[in-house]
Amino acid sequence: MSEENSGVKLNDVISVLEKFAPKQLSESWDNTGLLVEPYTPRNINKILLTNDLTEDVALEAKQHNCEMVISYHPPIFAPLKTVIQSSWKERIVSLLLEHRISLYSPHTSWDSVKGGVNDWLACAFPFIESIPILPGEDPNTGAGRLLRLESGFSLSEAIKSVKIITGLKHVRLALGKGRTLTDNIENVALCAGSGSSVLKKVPKADLFLTGEMLHHDVLDAAQRGISVILTNHSDSERGFLTGFSSHLQSQLDNKVRVLVSEFDKDPLTTI
Asked: Which positions in this protein are listed as binding a divalent metal cation (predicted)?
């Protein structure tokens, strides 16, 4: 069977993606869904998952002969006035179109949905209750997660667990005023990515976990006795892709091979 006759249609992939996380779960400011669709359609046999679509990742998709890229963060956000070779984002769009590679971005729909990025991050903790910080129309979906933990879980254990689930050797910690590493924590508020605006809605917690926060927001939390763990923005999200790749491949009846990018990484590292 030729590649043109194998695999699945693009719309079938999109249907599976939006069955998992309906597009309407996205925040109103976000740019989610199908962002690049080549003029001449072709079936999807290989999909590359990435957190961020850089030029290296786009070339990786080309090298693997992928017909589709799913980029968690939408690389097209501000309107493009041209598609020429003068900027990296325009070069990516040009490359995708030239090689007939479709692009889909779920972003905040994956944050909001039950079983999505925030619930993956919550798995670092032994919680007995998890609810969205900002619930949507469905109270099981929404931005962030507020966790009530089992007893006897310390801040030092939380740090270790966050490192394990994210695969990081280092995280940044702001110790809450009057707190120690051996203190037990009873509740955690978390938000993958940049969580300041969501975490501000939480009046009280023992720990905030997110990718990045503004200095003054970290300072305010620490002075209120809330410890803060920061991982770097995309390091609080990227680990979700490994588990989701297996889920997506299964939902597509194994007719499509789903790869996770080896070139995708946060631009910031601790050295």
From this structure: 73, 111, 233, 237
